[in-house]
Design a protein that fits this description.
heterodimer; A: mainly beta; four-stranded antiparallel β-sheet; 11 strands; B: mainly beta; seven-stranded mixed β-sheet; about 50% strand; globular
């Protein structure tokens, strides 16, 4: 069974840092593209970014509001996905989910959807 | 960015009803539209991918249709466990974007 377990959430001050982890099990982590999705309190879902699998060079892409502040990485030896969040802002407050993806691919593009989600970890940015 | 607009933002329905939720993309996304269900305090769950493909284990009362810019999620014979918030999401462009959600409440 595919399982994802996020951790590392908590309270941080504006300008501070947090590192989220997502422990993966039940699938070939090295082969999987992974994403982070967040949800502000009482609001909708926002895609944060993705990291490709090893075969695709572990390239990362992220949404504009977090570019230059958040970094997605992975450690295959630990089957773990990370989200390093620096220069935190109050608007980064919310629940952060990691997901696996699946979908159609061609030579240029991966039309993926988020198929398995973790339970989420809560980040609060406040002074 | 592709803007995804869902309507309505909320609706009230009764058990046994047929419910339709629409999602419109700001420009063509082919068939790359997915639907998720989220219950309070829980992670989202994938229902439909590629506009009309039912995710494994999802009841057949859920169906999706559409292409290009206009998409529909239909729940036939609404069940008590279907009261939740539903989100559409496009996978044609980066950044991936979600609709604002449709909350389905008990009438």
């Amino acid at each position: 069974e595919v399982q994802l377990m996020e951790s590392g959430g908590g309270l941080a001050e504006p300008g501070g840092s947090l590192r989220l982890s997502c422990a993966a099990s039940g699938f070939a982590f090295t082969d999987a593209w992974m994403t982070w999705v967040r949800q502000a309190p009482g609001k909708g879902l926002e895609w944060v970014g993705h990291i490709a699998n090893k075969a695709d060079g572990e390239t990362t892409t992220s949404t504009a509001p977090v570019k230059g502040r958040f970094t997605i990485s992975r450690d295959a030896s630990k089957n773990t996905l990370f989200l390093q969040m620096n220069s935190l802002k109050t608007e980064d407050t919310g629940v952060y989910y990691c997901t696996t993806v699946a979908g159609r691919r061609n030579s240029r593009y991966y039309y993926y959807y988020m198929d398995v989600w973790g339970k989420g970890t809560t980040v609060t940015v406040s002074s | 960015d592709v803007q995804m607009t869902q309507s309505p933002s909320s609706l009230s329905a009764s058990v046994g009803d047929r419910v339709t939720i629409t999602c419109r993309a700001s420009h063509s996304i082919s068939i790359y539209l997915n639907w998720y269900q989220q219950k309070p305090g829980r992670a989202p769950k994938l229902l439909i991918f590629d506009a009309s493909s039912l995710q494994s284990g999802v009841p057949s009362r859920f169906s999706g249709s559409g292409s290009e810019t206009d998409f529909t999620l239909t729940i036939s014979n609404l069940q008590p466990e279907d009261f939740a918030t539903y989100y559409c999401q496009q996978s044609n462009d980066i950044p991936r974007t979600f609709g604002g959600g449709t909350k389905v409440e008990i009438k």
